[in-house]
Amino acid sequence: MNILERLKNTLKKTKEKFKEIISTDNLEKLEEGLLSADIGIQLTKNLIEKCKKTPGDKKEVLKKELIKILSIPYKENFFSLPKVVLIIGVNGSGKTTKVGKLAYYYKTNNKKVIIASADTYRDGATEQLKIWAERINTEIVLSQKGQDAAAVVFDAIISAQKRKLDMVLVDTAGRLHTRKELIEELKKIVRIITKVKNSQPEEIFLTIDASVGQNGIEQAKIFQKEIGVTGIIVTKLDGTAKGGILIPIAYELKLPIRYIGCGENIEDLIPFSAEDFVNTIFDFEN
How far apart are alpha carbons 94 and 107 in whole angstroms? Predict the structure, then answer.
């Protein structure tokens, strides 16, 4: 199954939601529909104003606007080998699974990868990641429950430097964005990475569960303020009609959506394309 087919399967529920929204020419009903899709109040007002002022098919007007909103430019950061990618997010957002799938994705793009299992809180987190590492035949630095997470990351980077590996993927403990001590632990990890590499981590990806809707944006704002985020990974899109949440995520956070989860299989983490996403949710014929 190619990427577009996987995207269509993933966004079935979201597409049904948008078909219901776009089927009306009544702007008041369109506004209600966009709000019900978790687009957000201010963005919905802006989109309705655009539809009022722009002649032509409202569907095409919306498509163009949404592609524009979602097309946030980014560049692949690289400061020094090994490239370090830190995965953060709240409990249950799918971080550990996405670390495994990211490792697979990078390996298929000829990168030599090591995983740092720095979730030292959750029972079974290290074992889960170990299974992923064995499955994709990649290196891993394991941790013990209660161990200093920053020390695990330090060991992984040193190991990668010695072996001349390309990338370190860091799985971190799920944490509430409101828990100051857990945010401080993340800051410590970033400081250790900076000290060992003489540079910041190249990427800090925040995982957001699509099904939580607008709550995910509020979480992201705090992580962005406290830690700094370079991109978003949206998970669990296949189980929700709230795929439209990607739109206010991009609009409010001004952060690029880098990857989206399209299912349970190892290859079901794909790079995000604004055009493919919007065209898929507006393709009501298929």
Answer: 20
